[in-house]
Design a protein that fits this description.
By secondary structure, the chain is of the alpha/beta class. The chain has helices at 7-24, 44-61, 82-94, 106-120, 150-163, 177-192, 211-219, 234-245, 260-266, 283-294, 304-321, 326-337, 349-357, and strands at 27-34, 69-76, 99-102, 124-126, 143-145, 168-174, 196-203, 224-228, 250-253, 274-278, 342-344, 362-364, 382-388, 391-397. The strands form 3 sheets. A 7-stranded mixed β-sheet has the order 7-6-8-9-10-13-14, sandwiched between helices. Helix 11 (304-321) packs across helix 12 (326-337).
Length: 398
């Protein structure tokens, strides 16, 4: 079960505290662990930049731990190699990080939490690991995520698909924790609403040819194809193959398929395709977009806001704890993220630091209106998007 701190774990957290501070000196090091290479490599630069934007805001305030500064240390999880993800996290531990922001992908995150975060008493806060299975991981209270679980995204995708009058869908999913989890969640929700999944077919990333997979999917008789994959890997290649063969014209796209590179390569052929991505279109999203644009972060990919929120929460939890002790961060995350307290939004991190330094309480809402449940999961909201004129346009928020 999640978030059950044992005596042994508590002692481990305390033992690691001095090491984290000692390695940091006047700098508090935070790991930024994402798939800078691999199937989401076009998405992660903006995610990392959004996280580092929050750290820059914290540093500019001069209020963090009496004037200390945060130094982000990047690591590459690759997204597809659990061993590489754990090794990258271990290198961050060796650098003396107080916490890890990441990993980005679900399989990598599971490996990092199990093999690195728990043994080292280290918080891992992911902005984008969405597998439902992570809700039950034995994390000793050290894993949190600002991205909502795919258990919810599956329901949203099913609802918005049925709302468009589509009651029959073929599914292809990348054969990993993310793909299988979302495919299962969508199928359950879609069938409960009266829909039919004609075929659900896993695919391996990195293949040179997907003709066989697309032929099987097309033979199922469905007119629409749900592609649960990665924008820089098999998912995009399957769409390209389907278009080349004339097998499908309309595609349903979840978060891992939303990115600039898809539009650059295929946008003019995807008119009417639709899907979902975590986030909202409210004032917070507008404020974040303005802040990000001014910092040169102009991409349209998912999880940028969730990355800013994850970084802000780590820093605010450290401030609430009064030190960069690893154990203190875990104990303060829910306090700074959840009500009651003064609401802290985008660009208001200095105010949050000031209130915490004076012993007050804050309710960090940020970009994604973060509120952690008992398992460290964020509920989140989703935007329904549609491709029109080779651009993603928001239709409504779920």
């Amino acid at each position: 079960m999640k978030h059950m701190l044992t005596t042994t774990t508590a002692l481990s957290l305390l033992a690691g505290a001095a090491l984290a501070d000692a390695h940091g000196g006047d700098m508090v090091k935070i790991g930024v662990l994402m798939g800078f290479t691999g199937p989401v490599e076009s998405l992660t630069p903006d995610m990392a930049a959004a996280a580092e934007l929050a750290f820059e805001e914290i540093n500019a305030s001069g209020l963090f731990l009496g004037g200390r500064q945060i130094e982000p240390i990047r690591g590459d999880s690759t997204c597809v190699d659990a061993g590489a993800a754990a090794a990258a996290a271990e290198r961050l531990v060796g650098e003396g990080v107080a916490a890890i922001l990441g990993a980005a992908c679900s399989g990598a995150t599971s490996a990092v939490v199990t093999n690195v975060a728990v043994p080292n008493g280290l918080v891992a806060l992911s902005p984008s690991a969405t597998s439902p299975g992570l809700s039950d991981i034995d994390d000793r209270g050290l894993f949190f995520r600002t991205a909502p679980s795919d258990a919810r995204q599956g329901e949203v995708l099913a609802e918005l698909t049925m709302a468009r009058g589509i009651d029959e869908v073929a599914i292809t999913y990348t054969n990993n924790d993310y793909g299988q989890g979302l495919a299962d969640a969508f199928s359950r929700a879609f069938e409960a609403l009266g829909g039919s999944v004609t075929v659900s077919l896993g695919h391996e990333d990195g293949r040179a040819d997907y003709t066989a997979e697309v032929s099987t999917l097309a033979a199922s008789g469905a007119s629409e194809l749900l592609v649960i994959g990665y924008v820089d890997q098999g998912g995009r290649q399957i769409i390209q193959t389907a278009l080349d063969l004339g097998a499908f014209e309309t595609f349903i796209l979840p978060d891992g398929m939303i990115g600039d590179s898809l539009l650059a390569d295929l946008g003019d052929q995807l008119e009417g395709s639709f899907g979902s991505v975590p986030g909202s279109d409210g004032e917070a999203a507008t404020a974040f977009d303005a802040l990000a644009t001014s910092a040169g972060i102009t991409g349209i990919g998912p999880f940028r806001g969730e990355s800013y929120d994850a970084a802000a929460l780590i820093a605010l939890a450290i401030q609430a704890a009064g030190s960069a002790d690893r154990g203190g961060i875990a104990q303060q995350l829910a306090r700074v993220a959840n009500a009651p307290g003064t609401r802290i939004g985008v660009g208001e991190l200095a105010e949050g630091l000031r209130i915490l330094s004076q012993g007050g309480d804050i309710d960090y809402v940020g970009v994604s209106n973060v509120e952690f449940d008992a398992g460290g999961n964020a509920a989140g909201t989703y935007r329904e998007i549609e491709i029109r004129g080779a651009a993603f346009e928001t239709q409504r928020v779920w």
